[in-house]
Give the backbone structure.
Amino acid sequence: MKNEINIGLLGFGVVGSGVAKILHDHQDDLSYKLGVPVKIKKVLVKDTEKERDTELQRDIFTADLDEIIDDPSIDLIVEVIGGTSEAKQAIERSLLSGKGVVTANKDVMAESGLELLKLADENKSDLFYEASVGGGIPLIRTLEDGLSSDRIRALTGIVNGTTNFILTKMKHENKSYEEALAEATELGFAEADPSADVDGIDAARKMVILSSLAFSTEVRMEDVFVRGMKDIKPGDLELAEQFGYTVKLAGSAKKDDNGIEVAVEPVFLPNSHPLSSVNNEFNAVYVYGDAVGETMFYGPGAGSLPTATSVTSDIMAACRNLLLGVNGKRLHAPQHTCKVKKDSQKFGRYFHRISVKDKVGVLTRLSAVYSKFGASLATVIQHPNKHDGGADLIMITHEISRQQHLDIMDELKNTEDVIDVLSHYRIEGELS
Amino acid sequence: MKNEINIGLLGFGVVGSGVAKILHDHQDDLSYKLGVPVKIKKVLVKDTEKERDTELQRDIFTADLDEIIDDPSIDLIVEVIGGTSEAKQAIERSLLSGKGVVTANKDVMAESGLELLKLADENKSDLFYEASVGGGIPLIRTLEDGLSSDRIRALTGIVNGTTNFILTKMKHENKSYEEALAEATELGFAEADPSADVDGIDAARKMVILSSLAFSTEVRMEDVFVRGMKDIKPGDLELAEQFGYTVKLAGSAKKDDNGIEVAVEPVFLPNSHPLSSVNNEFNAVYVYGDAVGETMFYGPGAGSLPTATSVTSDIMAACRNLLLGVNGKRLHAPQHTCKVKKDSQKFGRYFHRISVKDKVGVLTRLSAVYSKFGASLATVIQHPNKHDGGADLIMITHEISRQQHLDIMDELKNTEDVIDVLSHYRIEGELS
């Protein structure tokens, strides 16, 4: 049995320095739990000369990946470089050399997760990736272990802290999108180029990882319907509130006999839904299982120490496996081939906000469009529109397919007296 | 390597029949994940002749525990009998015979958890108990694995569904305690004798289990301060609401350099706290860790299938260990001896509702009591009291020790013009 575990840490940014801090500060507890100490033996950085605020010895920093991969005393590689090609290569090389890997890299895991897990299985190595989704919330583990006996039917998640922060500020402090984004950037919740966040790409990657695991299948980015928050129009959040809903950029994944559907889009969530009160930069994932019913897991979706907590818990799990000699014993091959539903098989209620000319008969003409496509309406409300003498019509449908929704949208745009379809949302999280 | 896992199921009540149903309905998924099938080989019941709605063969039911313990083909015992002495004996005998055990028994685990875990370690067997706390929510696992790298500082939980259901009905539907309890009983959320629930005993047992694990120490029932919901007076819930709080029967566990404190009592939770919107029979545990910050885990706290999900996930974990030959390799000895704080070391803000005679100088006399014990007040409000011409005084303190609070209570009762201290609550979940 090994008398210590040595780690090669790739990257020393926000997460990497957090991992070093936790391993240092909690070393007594961690080595008590494992029975042996866990040490960072080498750290890969671009610039070894840079001044760093750390307890680690200066001479363990290196710019040469080979030095780490070729060190036989290193048992475990922790990849927190971020990005894709360099990180993916480093993970592959580590696994091929028989070392276990812990990664926080959602981009790599969303793009090549199953390929890398297969490589890990083939090389009798472990690959853990808890920190790739939901920062400090133990979600991967919960799906793999805690709910392992259940059949997951649906999963709804607020998995992007930046957009949730922006929407919270817009709703609760009446800020504009631009003001809220500026505040998020200032506080470090948004990157200089926030497009991956606000366009829903970041959330989509996390939904690929979660839904692949929840449904034991291979979901790819192109299987996810993605709509960012740019389609949210001024006034939409207030309108949602009037009807008892909160607008969230949510990921959703569902499975039924026809297949799966995975989406990231701004949705209306009922205010009674536990996800609707998840605010600021927090993340939460709501899981619906056949047997367990509703559960929800809430916590910080990002940040140095929260993310590092997940990485370090993965390190603990990998160490345990190494110490027991059962590393690489987990089967990751998906149980099911991935069948993505057609738009005609995806059902939901929709909220449509339509700008019309305020003329006799306009409501009749519009409701005829819904009837034509077999959609029945739950709510119809006409708001006079102050600025142009027209009106805003709110139409909330009963359950229809996404195909019906799209057909109605198209037809409305060509309907007499319709100026524009201002906005449209799917209503998520209602019992059907 | 084994080619199947055989289970001896002790008990076939609400949870036991749920476990049988999940193992039957999800068998394809479970055996895919494990690589081998998992079968219930024998079931212990009192009456083998009773008609049961189950897919299990009738001849596997037995009233003889020996038949199960002595069957060498049975690898794993699942104890869902409930109660204490019979269940504890059965667990001990199973562990001594080298079989792994999965239990849902909070009474046994709160009373003898560490003793049984030690017995498991000595006999190289596993003892899993996820279902003993929080029904379908994977809490034990989260503390053991997901947050294994962190240092837990505090844990607040709504861990009793019955009392939470009653308080929700009282708050949201203006029912009296008696009406709400009657409804809970009718819906099967409360037992015929609800005293273990409403007196806080059930929640205290769960807090013993959670805090022992979170702080890696041995917390016993006598270390927990317990106050049931009978002290909640009519009008308290409305008063709480006026000040922006919700009354919850909450478990709390905290640790600092002076030691630990564990309590179950009705508390005021700020409405902005995620636990305040956990309603009906749902449970949730809020965990505060050094590194991760705030996380929360929410789900059904009881019920046949939710609880059975946790039991079956434990079965999966035990099976994996058996198949890998690493059963009984987990160290359960607590890292720290348990040091319980004195009342003078437990700090919090307190809400006091005091009935007084409406006389000149009464407020001066009362505030002098607070000053005498060094307590400063954050809020003082006087409400005329319609029925007896007196008044209700609301005093909300800044942070004081529990000892100060108790001293003030005592002194108030002997203060001129004080009719009674109607109610008092600690305020939980505020940032200090």
